[in-house]
Amino acid sequence: MARFKVTFLPDGRQTFVEEGETLLQAARRARVYIQSICGGEGTCGKCKVIVKRGKFKTKPSPFISDEEERKGYVLACLTTPMSDLEVEVPLESRMEGVQAVEDVVLKSELKVTPERCNPLSQKVFLELPPPSLEDNIPDLDRLLRGLRGAGYDKVEVDFRSLKGMADLLRDSDFKVTASLARTREGFKLLSLEGGNKASTNFGAAIDVGTTTVVAQLLDLEKCEVLGTKATYNKQARYGEDVITRIIHSEKGEGLRELQEAVVGDINQLISALCGEAGISPEEVTVVVCAGNTTMLHLLLGVPPRYIRKEPYIPAFSLPPVVGARELGLRISPYGVVYCLPSVASFVGGDITAGVLASGMAREERLSMLIDMGTNGEIVFGNSEFLVCCSCSAGPAFEGGGIKFGMRASRGAIQRVELTPDLEVLVSTVDGVKPRGICGSGMIDCLAEFLRAGVINRAGKFNEELIGRTERLRKGEDGLEFVLVWAEESAISRDIVITQADIDNLIRSKAAVYAGAKVLLDKVGFDFEAVEKFYVAGGFGNYLDIEKAIEIGLLPDLPRERFEYIGNSSLAGARLCLLSSEAFEEAVEIANRMTYIELSVDNAFYEQFMAEMFLPHTE
Ligand code: FES
Known about the structure:
This protein is α/β, with parallel strands linked by helices. The strands form seven sheets. It has a six-stranded mixed sheet, sandwiched between helices. Strands 28-27-18-19-20-29 form a six-stranded mixed sheet. It has a five-stranded mixed sheet with strand order 2-1-7-3-5. Bound molecules: FE2/S2 (inorganic) cluster (FES).
């Protein structure tokens, strides 16, 4: 079988491909990260590359315009080399520059102070009395007695720890440090070391997002955050949403590839954080992960197959504590991994973490948490009850299904303003030249277009403006509005918003609003009853609540009721890491949440159709 060399520009990375393999597969192997929202099905149009040299076979695609075709653009997932190739990955197709989302500011009663710190993994130094003829109990009983004396009852010890115990105790003069992990019943002995090692103990809180993975390193003795880092979830090579990844997990080595990809991300983040903190990753004894149900299945290497099939059953909601090495995590050899409990297939541990971090489950007042992503998750309730649902919002909030859409990373337009004469002001993540638009930018766009009469309440472009402003014009995909001219953009192309982009965003906002409204209806409430709204989502660090209300994504209520809380998933994971009580509370929250299935609900579809207007149908 023929083999060809593919060189990816501008980095110059090279790999060999067998005849019949696609450029997207080649890019994955060469560790060149190309956007591929649909997982290589040819349906998202995000994997555009330019063939500079060589012969290839490709399939026609509506995502490639005639002009692009002349310039050598192809979809990487539909193109196979027929000779050695040189391929350029244009800026708009690259995945790079992830923005670490700002953390939630926790309410003071939720903060874990050093006095309240009771981490999931603990170290205790014991000076045990050496055995004598009067005190001649076995070594294990001596150790357990010492632990009881230090306040650690019900410690489970496995066979592995038993083997070297007798020598270790004697070699260290019966002065030892025990590392213990919390279990539902008490503690489990993780390791025994000679001497006093109790002054250093580190842990990591991880938000395993579908798009990004965020890690935070903590000093568990001082109850202090040492650093936070984020990276794209490398599973995105195999598809950007959970469904395409579940499908990939069902193919050959798919599950292993997905598991290794995310474990690799976590290892890389922990290693970088430890490097900056001047410690070794081996000193990290515990990792706490929050993520949606599919992400947690993939992290643990558990097949997620039945999550997407009716009646949508996950393999677990609260997985057992797992040895880090079993997953391939390069932390302490005896380190352990905890996952926050999920509620249902589409309401995961990230939402449990959000409810925990917002404090809504402790309060009497009625609150709603809305987490907007490809899947919109909504929780409503208070200290007495909690109900939740999820609705498929489509990828528009994360830049998917939008011609120049991208995630909230470097160069993404995140704010848009229109002047009365239709001039455009944009601001981007990191303040660099724009290269695309993210969810918050799209929400701004829609609100500004509506205000300025560029679109009507059905979201359709106002054709009367053609000729009055050169920004509204006929493009390859119908009418489009030029947000940024080519000379001002980082990609040397006009960045436009098309009618299809607007329609996609309207569908997303309609799904979220309809989900929230129907959830409230089911329990006999309306929006007016909601005293506090916590809004979370993949918008980076910015979301204009006012504009979200203007387009009907959020209800029109007093603005002080809304709070954009950013990454509540990470905050919840950190709380659990630092406090066993918080972890117990998370388990209790997940048990208390009643999941309402909307996918088979007519009321949801009727409401969804009614929400396809801006802001709503009157
Ligand atoms: S079109 Fe190629 S990955 Fe989606």
